[in-house]
Design a protein that fits this description.
Distance between the termini: 114 Å
Radius of gyration: 29 Å
Structural class: alpha/beta
Low-confidence stretches: none
Number of helices: 17
Number of strands: 16
Shape: elongated
Helix content: 25-40%
Mean pLDDT: 92
């Protein structure tokens, strides 16, 4: 009995000692009140210490960002459904800026810009959280763009090459195949991680794109960040910044990363909507004065880092929608001046069935040419000039002009070039296949093949490319120059393959 009593006494003594040692600590919480609501916007009073772009917590697990920090009130951008929110609701200051989970656990997942999973893959596994707005790497931390990013699309890899660390704009009218080019580029990557950011897209279109990526096995190295067309404008606005932070994590770990923004037209419109609701002064086309800055600070984060910093790269493919082929509109010209080149898709070529509908005369790559492989430079050097000559002469030929033999040969060769540059969706070509076809094209081996047999002849040549010796294929990617002996071997292979098609002439 005594032992039980002593145990009870000891227990109560220990409890009393703990109670005496405990010092109550006050936890400060800074709260405010919602004064008014509008579409995706809340005006808040009573938070004098809040900073620009700081996170605010509203009732119902709803978050917002302080966008306008005025003397007497705050204009907050809401990042979710706000149907339950009313004037007078309590708002809590969180003390940090907006961040997003990052890490290798995100690969293969579909998430929203807040880091919440949208698929059935269970809870998200991540390494850490990074702010969505981060400063771009310093100039002295950047390395030149020296390695090509193969898209698997002949017309781009040959005539508008893209380098790892470059920013290449894809623009064109709606329904001209802009997303198809970006998705084909993702499908062609194996050693490059990809981030696909769908900004304000239709849910059905995003679901179709994700289904295509899954079917082709591309989700094994891809992260998808999604905002749908019916999401609040605040979510649409932060989506590309959140996706870029996810991509930067991989880049800083030494990986090569490709990010697709599909598309920044919706992003600009969302920012315009928020700015007008917050009573910011409108400018050209009712966009606010800093519309250029929101895209320049986003795309400046794409770069190639020095080897001392891991040697990773972030290649950006922003997409912009033009109206009535007007590439001199406000947002397209902004993006053209920010990026390192553009791929323009022509609705006229699309209607003619020339896919991908890349207008070579209006497309340019200001950086990728330096990173292009020597084999491509050797076989595609004269291709752009020959194609441009053909387009000019073809317009004259439509008037029934009498043409000399040389002009007829140029037009016939140009038609073969145009036919060869066609490519079906979801069918990226290997480097050896592209080099073989392009070399036979520049050597005018296709000129004696009838136009209706061009597709069949090209497929036969692609199959023959699999027989090229491994050492020659290795030199395609590693050699500084395209060897004459290798060229002769490929031309011999192409000649033997195409001889049966010439007999149909």
């Amino acid at each position: 009995m005594k032992s039980l009593q002593s145990i009870i006494d000891q227990t109560f003594t220990a409890v009393s000692q703990v109670c005496m040692a405990y010092i109550a600590q006050l936890e400060s919480r800074e709260t405010g009140t919602v004064t008014s609501l509008s579409t995706g916007i809340a005006r808040v009073s009573g938070l004098p210490g809040v900073g620009f772009e700081e996170v605010l917590k509203f009732p119902g697990d709803l978050y917002g960002i302080a966008f306008n920090v005025d003397e007497n009130e705050i204009g907050a951008v809401l990042l979710g459904d706000y149907w339950h929110l009313n004037a007078g609701a309590e708002v809590e200051r969180r003390g940090h800026v907006m961040d997003v989970p990052v890490g290798y656990g995100l690969i293969g997942r579909v998430i929203n810009p807040l880091g919440r999973p949208l698929d059935d893959g269970g809870p998200l596994v991540f390494d850490k959280r990074l702010p969505i707005e981060r400063p771009a790497p310093h100039i002295m931390d950047r390395a030149p763009v020296t390695t090509p990013l193969q898209t698997g699309i002949k017309v781009i890899d040959a005539l508008v090459p893209i380098g790892r660390g470059q920013r290449e704009l894809i623009l064109g009218d709606r329904q001209t195949g802009k997303t198809a080019i970006a998705v084909d580029t993702i499908l062609n990557q194996r050693d490059v991680l990809c981030v696909y950011c769908a900004i304000g897209q239709r849910a059905s279109a995003v679901a179709q794109t994700i289904a295509n990526l899954r079917e082709k096995g591309a989700m094994e190295y891809t992260v998808v960040v999604v905002t749908e067309g019916n999401d609040p404008p605040g979510l649409t606005y932060i989506a590309p910044y959140a996706a870029t932070s996810i991509a930067e994590y991989f880049m800083e770990a030494g990986r090569d990363v490709l990010i697709v923004y599909d598309d920044l037209t919706h992003h600009a419109r969302a920012y315009r909507e928020l700015s007008l609701l917050l009573r910011r002064p409108p400018g050209r086309e009712a966009y606010p004065g800093d519309i250029f800055y929101i895209h320049s600070r986003l795309l400046e984060r794409a770069t190639h880092l020095l080897d001392e910093l891991g040697g990773g790269s972030l290649t950006a493919l922003p997409i912009i929608e033009t109206e009535a082929q007007n590439i001199s509109a406000y947002i397209p010209t902004n993006l053209i001046s920010i990026t390192d080149g553009q791929i323009y898709l022509s609705p006229k070529l699309f209607e003619l069935g020339i896919l991908p509908a890349v207008d070579v005369s209006k497309s340019v790559s200001r950086v990728g040419g330096k990173a292009q492989r020597a084999a491509y430079r050797a076989v595609a050097g004269d291709l752009k000039l020959a194609y441009a000559q053909f387009e000019e002469l073809e317009s004259f030929a439509r008037f029934g002009t009498r043409l000399d033999e040389n002009t007829r040969q140029i037009i016939a060769h140009g038609r073969r070039i145009r036919s060869c540059l066609k490519q079906s969706e979801f069918e990226p070509m290997t480097i050896s296949e592209q080099i073989t076809v392009l070399l036979a094209l520049t050597a005018k081996m296709f000129d004696s093949v009838p136009l209706e047999a061009m597709r069949e002849a090209e497929l036969a040549l692609c199959k023959a490319a699999a027989m090229i010796p491994a050492e020659i294929v290795e030199r395609f990617t590693s050699a500084a120059t395209f060897d004459y002996i290798d060229r002769a071997a490929i031309l011999q292979l192409a000649g033997e393959t195409l001889i049966s098609f010439r007999q149909h002439e």
